[in-house]
Design a protein that fits this description.
binds NADP nicotinamide-adenine-dinucleotide phosphate, 10 strands, 8-stranded mixed beta sheet, alpha/beta, 11 helices, 46% helix, two-stranded antiparallel ribbon, Rossmann fold
Length: 361
């Protein structure tokens, strides 16, 4: 088994714990929004029919700075119900136009169709909040159109998220008036991710890649239900750094406009996500120290339109609404190398799904 390069996330973990218990996330207001004159933004939120996505959508509709809001949901029926609920909260003078669009993050075809529709139908996009995510207690396959597959947590939280991010970049560049943003819902659980599983996958995979190696049922740890979820958020952080690096490079060397990519952590929140995973103790702890969804969702709003989510957050982790240090393992040589390998795998999938798309970055 390969050794993990030594690292310590103790100080980040302590900071995250203190923030969870004693801290909060400041709401976005006229004082900390970027460009307070702009009241005409278009924002897309994935997984917007429930949990943090819905709460963030509510805040976007209430703030008065967003004129079009797209609720991207895998079930249009659930999305329409969420829209009705959201409209009930919308202040009477609000000019936010809300639409429900179909998007299944477990399907590459759905992601491509969504991106094409965004390119066709939206004249302006300011931010896309890639929030949809799962925490599963049992193994599930996300089958692709070509019979290949990823394990469902990896597909939704990682592969689908970055496929959509990459495909949306040319659309965002074309349709934005200011610097557009891609907000990815990450998590401080990256500090407890078992990176040795990733190093093992990197070591043992024989050409199929880390993500496919991890996707086989025999690699699912049924005893520790959160292991895959935590790892998926560690991978998200690694890939966010890679994507941000590629964008920074192309804006420097090829003069392409910057698209800010940031990773936000809402903290530990009482949503539907952890309804099945964990044990009785963690469920009690969630009741005691968990945040309400509306507070956690502020993180997504900060990432998309807050000053803290501006250029300084590119490639970073925003926790409690501020740029914080990501897992130290992501910054080790080993973490960087495995991050590049994961990026290569995602890039190959992007090229397979949409040839030429990587050159657009
Ligand atoms: N809650 C927390 O403490 C916490 C902490 C850190 C990070 N996060 C992250 O925040 C994000 C939102 O989580 P949440 O707490 O709001 O969870 P949630 O209440 O379970 O909501 C998840 C949302 O994602 C959607 N979704 C799941 N699979 C999808 C797919 N294949 N295609 C499209 N949408 C899909 C769900 O839609 P359906 O209703 O159709 O299932 C739902 O709208 C996740 O990425 C999660 O990892 C949460």
């Amino acid at each position: 088994m390969p050794e993990l390069e030594p690292y310590s996330d103790r100080s980040q973990l302590w900071d995250a714990f203190k923030g969870q218990v004693f801290g909060t996330i400041p709401a976005v207001t006229a004082k900390n929004i970027s460009d307070p004159e702009d009241r005409n933004r278009t924002i897309i939120v994935t997984g917007a029919n429930g949990g943090l996505g819905f709460e963030a959508a509510k805040q976007f509709a209430q703030l008065g700075y967003v004129s079009k809001l797209i609720l991207a949901c895998r079930s249009v029926e659930k999305g329409e119900k969420a829209k009705t609920a959201l409209l009930a909260f919308k202040p009477s003078g609000s000019k936010t136009n809300v639409e429900v669009w179909s998007l299944d993050m477990a399907s590459t075809a759905s992601i491509v169709a969504f991106t094409e529709r965004a390119g066709r139908e939206l004249s302006r996009i300011d931010a896309i909040v890639l929030n949809a995510g799962v925490d599963l207690v049992s193994y599930q396959k996300a089958s692709q159109e070509d019979d290949s597959y990823y394990e469902m947590t990896l597909m939704v939280n990682v592969v689908g998220t970055f496929l959509l991010a990459v495909l949306m970049i040319p659309v965002l560049r074309h349709q934005s008036v200011a610097t557009p943003r891609i907000v990815i819902t990450g998590s401080v659980v990256q500090f407890v991710a078992k990176y040795d599983v990733l190093a093992e996958a990197d070591h043992k995979q024989t050409g199929e890649g880390i993500l496919r190696w991890l996707s086989e049922e025999s690699r699912w740890n049924g005893k520790i239900t959160e292991e895959r979820y935590y790892l998926s958020k560690g991978i998200v952080q690694l890939l966010e750094r890679q994507l941000a690096g590629v964008i920074a490079e192309s804006s420097k060397s090829a003069g392409k406009s910057l698209v800010v990519v940031n990773c936000v952590c809402p903290g530990w929140c009482r949503t539907n996500l952890f309804q099945q995973s964990g044990n009785a103790g963690s469920r009690i702890a969630l009741k005691l120290i968990g945040r309400n969804g509306d507070v956690g969702a502020r993180a997504l709003v900060v990432g998309a339109i807050g000053k803290e989510g501006d250029k300084a957050s590119h490639g970073q982790l925003l926790s409690e609404g501020r740029v914080k240090k990501c897992s130290s393992w992501c910054e080790t040589k080993q973490g960087e190398r495995i991050g590049r390998q994961l990026w290569k795998e995602v890039s190959e999938l992007v090229e397979k799904v949409q040839p030429g798309a990587m050159a657009e970055l």
